[in-house]
Each structure stands twice: as structure tokens, then as C-alpha cells.
Amino acid sequence: MNRLEALYRANPGPLAFARGYLDYLKEVMDHVDPASIAAFAETLLQARERGARIFFIGNGGSAATASHFANDIAIGSRSWAAPFRAISLTDNVSTVTAIANDYGYEEIFTLQLKTQMTSGDVVVAISASGNSANVVGALEYANEHGAVTLALTGFDGGRLRKVAQRGVHVPTNMGEYGPVEDVHMIIDHLVGAYLFERCRAEGRTQS
Fold this sequence. Notes:
Shape: globular
Strand order of the largest sheet: 2-1-3-4-5
Oligomer: single chain
Largest sheet: 5 strands, parallel
Number of helices: 9
Number of domains: 2
Radius of gyration: 18 Å
Number of strands: 5
CATH class of the largest domain: Alpha Beta
Order of helices and strands: HHHEHEHHEHEHEH
CATH architecture of the largest domain: 3-Layer(aba) Sandwich
């Protein structure tokens, strides 16, 4: 039984559940390694310095996080003179559905990387389970073709945690998608805030 189910069974009232959920989220966050977040941010800064692109991928809720992350990095940093070239590969419905229809859903990210990615680019894969075939396959392709690969994972990390060159892991019980995705979004806003302040300190942030 995961912690959320146990929490509800212990006291199904909404107030008790809200308190318990927030307490558990604090517990989960305490087990995330801050050094891994720092390394994640540093990788994005290095990508900016060499003019590399940063591709974000994920399914479902993680697709929304990929889109949000790309926005917060590319636009939220306000670093127009030295931009973060961040792109979410989840956002073009025509491309995603064409690939899914013609080649299979497992190829929706890999085929986009084949046409867009070059050696030295960064690919960020977001997955709570770490076992989504299309995400794992895309990172394997990126590894084989000279990209830097990062992962945001949950549960036990799955295959993705092993395939990625580096990443941030959010350890939870299996199936606890909500807390994992909550923390992934906190990481998004943490990294985005840091990059904005870093760019401002460097005099690279503009209105």
C-alpha cells in the first residue's frame, strides 16, 4: 500500500488528508539530493554557454512538466543575449500524432531527436516510473549520438535512472505519481529561479 492510500484509510476527511499529504511531501523532499539539483542547473548553464539546445520530454503529467520547464528556462530566464535554447518535444500535436500513427508511440521522441538533435545538445527526460519505453528509448538514442542526458525520476528510478548520465531522483513508493510530479515542478521552479538570478547577476537578463 502506498502512503497516500494509507493516509486516506487512516482518516478520510479532507482536512486530515491535506495535512497528511503536505507532511508526506515534506518528507519526500527531504530525501532529494540538493547536489543533484545543482549539477542539473550547471548542465543547463553549460549548454547555454556552448549554444546547445535543451530538449525536454515526458508523458502525461510529465509532458506538462516538460512544457512548463522549457518555458521557464527559455523565456523565464529573460536572457535574450545568451539564451537557453529550451524546447519541449511534447508540444507539437501534429508531429507527435503523425509519428505515433505512422511509426508507433514509442518513437514520438526518438524520431524528433533524429531530425533536431546534434552532438552536444542536452536531453532532459521526465518520468515518475522511469520505465516509459518512448522516454527510455529516446535517451538511449541521445547517449549514442553525443548528447548530454538528464533525468527527473521517481519511485525507484526505473530504467531511466540507469540510462541517464545524471539526474535528480525523487524517491517514493511505487505508484505515488502526485508527490513525484509535485517535486518535479518544485525542481522546475527552483532551477528556473536560480537561472534567472544567475543571468541577472551576470547582466544578461533583460525585460
